[in-house]
Amino acid sequence: MVNGPRDEERVVLAGDALAVIDAHGTLTGWSEGARRLTGYTAAEATGRPAADLVAGDPRAAWRELRASGAAVVGVRHRDGRRLEPTLRLCPVALGERRAYVVTVTPDDAGRDLGELAFRQASVSMSVFDTGQRYLRMNDVACAVMGQPEDGFLHRYFPDTVEDAEHSRGFLRHLEIVAETGRPVHYESWTRSPSGRRMHAWTTEMWPLRDPADEVLGVALAAFDSSEQYAARQRLAMLNEAAAGIGTRLDVVRTARELAELVVPRLADFASVDLLDSVLQGDEPVLGQVEAGVELRRVAHHSLTAGVPEAAIGLGAADVYPPYSPPARALATGLPVLARTGDPDLDRWFGLHTARSAKLRTTGGTDTHDLALMAVPLMARGMTLGVAVFVRLLTPEKPDVFDEDDVSLARELASRAAVCVDNARRYTRERTTALALQRSLLPQTVAGQAAVESASRYLPALSQAGVGGDWFDVIPLSGTRVALVVGDVVGHGLHASVTMGRLRTAVWTLADVDLPPDELLTHLDDLVGHLGTDESGESGEIGATCLYAVYDPVSRRCTLAAAGHPPPVVRYPDGRVEVVEVSAGPMLGVGGLPFEATELELPEGSVLALYTDGLIEARDRDIDAGTAALCAALEAPADSLEDVCDTVIGSLLPKTPGDDVALLVARTRALDAEQVAVWDLPADPAVVATARKHATDQLTRWGLDEAAFVTELVVSELVTNAIRYGGDPIQLRLIRDRTLICEVSDASSTSPILRRARIFDEGGRGLLLVAQLTDRWGTRPTGTGKTIWAEQALPPTL
């Protein structure tokens, strides 16, 4: 307070707003609180009439103040605003002079309530000056910091906390509010100085301003949002699990995805052990847990590189005693919590020395306490295995698993179990389909002289399952051979079964010895029937096929395709060409014709037949794939096996996206000395001549021992041709691995093998031929038919 209008009396007074008025109504004293209230400094206010600051009638205000000692008076702010504070008037004596002190104070009850609200707030509240020094702290803030308010007042914030990233972030936000005067929002995940548990803090900071709008300090309220934070984290993990667990139908990969997801957010170490039957794709059988249960480690993951906590290697099996947490979880179907000090857990660790040592030691630092949670993996009412989560408890991280952790672990395990079971069922179906498909594919190629062949079949490692690709090498009459490659649309068991039916049909039609275009026509009808169910509704069965017949005598190859990629041929001179074949419609379309293409293949030509999986890829179109195939066939190779390896290695990745079938054949040719041909007139007298031609040729070949049977076969077949067929008649003998006798005529009617009655004069010829030879049959030709019979060569030759 001042004692007069002297300069020394015009001091700045702190605290509440206070002014001194002398007996003449002149302001002689002015406090800092008055400056903050009105905006006028002491120099601007003292020495001027107090009436100048009154908004309204100053005389009326003065009378009311003198009469009651307090009144609401309108006051002009320096910026022109009108203020209506409650003024209190107190007369004082300054020596012989009389003066008045005017104060502005808040209501005492309001002041008390505000103080109580600050002190008793359920959230941490603090006030800092613009230099980030503590000015006020409520009771919750003191509890969080672990010391009373006196231990922090006027101390610089960084001096009261650890030097960590979250502390530096907190300080920076305090500075931002002090510098900019704008409120900020700050979130952190940290441990308070007074506790060990980690907490999530949501902090609101705002500036404190005086009436002149100057920033005096920073106030804050910090909310402990740990529960909300943990809920968001759990939800985030569940969302990640929905997208990140079960990305492929692979049991081991799914288990690994679970282990990698939970570390480090839920556990420091995680392992997944499954029953062997699950890995094999069979229905899981748990058995009696009381006798111990054997599980196989399929995945584990750790905070520490190399997973030092793992006492069991990947792929190894271990027997879990019935009192161990994993076995108890399997027996009850519920999560089991344990920590060191529990008798059963310590007993299990003691039984398994390696597990005890490794789980108690991490990175060379002894950890004397740990928490463990075993969660069963169950799907569709079946137990598949168990997931084990471990936390290493330290003074810095003392939190054991709680109910929220158990709930989260069950959700994750349930998701993983369904994905594991899906992968198991896929494994079973794929194994079955693959076994079926391999059983339907040719295991060995029947002996024949037309071609030398090699093949490759690569099933796709995709979630779609095994496809319906197939290939075949079918021996035909007259030393010819059929080369077949096909592809059923779709994957899985249905495609494999359809492939088997088509392959059987091709063998049946090939045995009839139909030309390639006619064979595909019949096969197209069959696919159409297969695609129609019992109700008559059309299904979605489709297939492609390439059928080629090579004759080593004429050295010509006849091909027809049904929506299949064309073959590629490498000629003996090194040229590689794509055979121009009419693609034709896919099998099952129906009603469209197939066209045959004929080309000459010199001896030693290499013909490559394949399915589209060889040349098609996501990053490569068909033309580029075909060009790559041609380039691979141009590469020198010592054998057809090397050719297959070169083609597969050049065109396919390690895991092809579609099934691939590749058939490579090198053509052979029969020497002119191995074939004898005679054109015969349709005259019964020529039968004897035909027999003589045959016996003379056998003598030249040194096959006199086969003359008797061959003479009888020639006699019967030529006689039938003359009697039922007509001109032109041709007799042909082929000496290869067997002796083949063929008689062609102009009739398209096939002979019928029948049993003659006792008194019948004829009808025994074909029966004799069938009994004296190894095989016989008939095939159509462009002008009629050919009847053939095949007999083994004498063993001495």
Automatic annotation (TrEMBL):
Coiled coil stretches, renumbered: none
Annotated ranges, domain PAS: 16-48
A GO biological-process term: regulation of DNA-templated transcription
Top-level taxonomic group: Bacteria
GO molecular function, one term: phosphatase activity
InterPro entries: Bact_Sigma-Reg (IPR052016), GAF (IPR003018), GAF-like_dom_sf (IPR029016), HATPase_C_sf (IPR036890), HATPase_dom (IPR003594), PAS (IPR000014), PAS-like_dom_sf (IPR035965), PAS_4 (IPR013656)
SMART domains named among the record's database cross-references: GAF, PAS, PP2C_SIG
Keywords in alphabetical order: Hydrolase
Protein name, UniProt field: SpoIIE family protein phosphatase
